Amino acid sequence: MPDWDTETESRIIGELIHATHRWRFDHAWPSDGVTAIIGPSGCGKTTFLRIWAGLAPNFKGHLFWRGQKVSASAHKRRFVYVPSDGALFPHMTVHENIAFAARLSGIADEAIDALVEMCGVASWWSAKVSSLSSGQRQRVALARALAAKPRLLLLDEALSNIDWFGRQKLLQALRASGVPVLYVTHAIEDVMLVASGVLRFREQALQPYLPLAQWLGSGDDVPLTAVIGGRVIRVDAHGLAHIDCEDFVLKTVTHHMLPEQVDVRIRAMDVALSLSPLADSSVNNVIPVTIQWLSKPHGAYQDVHVQAGRHRLFARLTHYSVMRLGLTVGKQVFAAIKSVVVN
Q1: Does the pTM of the predicted model rise above 0.85?
Q2: What b-and-e string marks burial along 112-142, b requiring 16 or more CB atoms within 10 Å of the CB?
Q3: One digit per residue, pLDDT tens: the chain, 343 residues?
Q4: Are strands 285-294 and 301-308 parallel, antiparallel or unpaired?
Q5: CA nearest 144: which of 183, 182, 75, 89?
Q6: Which CATH number fits domain 6-216: 3.40.50.300, 1.20.120.550, 3.90.1150.10, 3.30.70.60?
Q7: Which numeric CATH code is attached to 225-342?
Q8: Of 119, 159, 273, 335, which sits 20 to 30 A from 203 (CA to CA)?
Q9: d(CA 299, CA 297)
Q10: 249 phi, psi to nearest 5 deg
Q11: Partners of 241 in the beta sheet?
């Protein structure tokens, strides 16, 4: 049984034939939150979004959103599709592009001001879109899409030209807005930051939905990653946020205000194991752990699962390091966590 409310889920049932390929769909996932759509180029990610936007006339089947059948025409369903180039009106200014969507949706002026602030487009308000950089155009396209008051936002690599720090702020603000999103991206760090779950295309076939923690823990198409819930207890004078994970406290640099309750993501490649606490190293987070499982070597590497209280962490080590340290199941060692992602 799915671990979400099936009465309000999204579902696609049907097929689409395009050129020499046929996609068959019978998939469901939670309607709320950010659902990442991942897979190699040309596998069907854009086609999938266009089906939801009502822009794929060859699709034969049914869509359900929040448990209700989608029968409205493309322009009435308010599923707003944003391609990577933004599809803006180049002869219009930034203001005119956003105002065009706002007139159709009837969004309040105060809400437009908030979108302008969130998307960081105020500096180019009177500029022609044709004069903007690709990253600036993507910010404007996102603001225009939100001004349309979407019920569902369909982002097709729509933030790919925005720098990482700017993209991080936008994604966090977008998630906080509560607008449901289907987000096509090749940026795994974006998925780790904001997605609640993942739909994967493999060999041009859509795979079943996986909640984020399950996908990150699978090592499938992603660096093996642990997800731990925590509570921010303070930010010290050095700008380090202290996060209480119940069994240990983690410290990490933060560039923005964090909510009290956060998720911490720790990649296996960012965890080293040591026989001693490493008190004289530059690593801020070193915690005692017990080895629970060791994978068979894959190439030069070997995955090690360790337990820290009630939490399972992962470390990807060279097979040589495993042998040199004499790592075995049940051995007590120290995990040096070099980097974490917090959201």
Answers
A1: no
A2: beebbebbbbeebeeeebeebeeebbbbbbb
A3: 677 788 889 999 999 998 788 999 999 999 999 999 999 998 999 999 999 999 999 999 999 999 999 998 888 899 999 999 999 999 999 999 999 999 999 999 899 999 999 999 999 999 999 999 999 999 999 999 999 999 999 999 999 999 877 888 899 889 889 999 999 998 887 887 789 999 999 888 999 999 988 887 776 666 688 888 899 999 999 989 999 999 999 999 876 677 888 888 899 999 999 999 988 889 999 999 999 999 888 889 999 999 999 899 999 999 999 999 999 999 999 999 999 988 7
A4: antiparallel
A5: 89
A6: 3.40.50.300
A7: 2.40.50.100
A8: 159
A9: 6
A10: -115, 130
A11: 235, 252
Q: How far does CA 341 lie from the centroid of its chain?
A: 12
Measured CA distances, 198 to 15, 86, 162, 237 (Å): 20, 23, 22, 37
**Domain ranges, ordered by start, for the chain:** 6-216, 225-342
329 alpha carbon, distance to own chain's centre: 33
Looking at the DSSP bridge assignments, the partners of residue 237 are: none
Distance of CA 154 to the CA centre of its chain: 13
* Torsion angles phi and psi, residue 165, rounded to 5: -65, -45
Q: Strand, coil or helix: what is 144?
A: helix
In the structure encoding, which two tokens stand for residue 50, read together? 């266009």
Give every strand in the sheet of 21-30, ordered side by side. 21-30, 9-18, 60-65, 68-69
Q: Let me know: does 171 contact 118? Beta carbons within 8 Å.
A: no
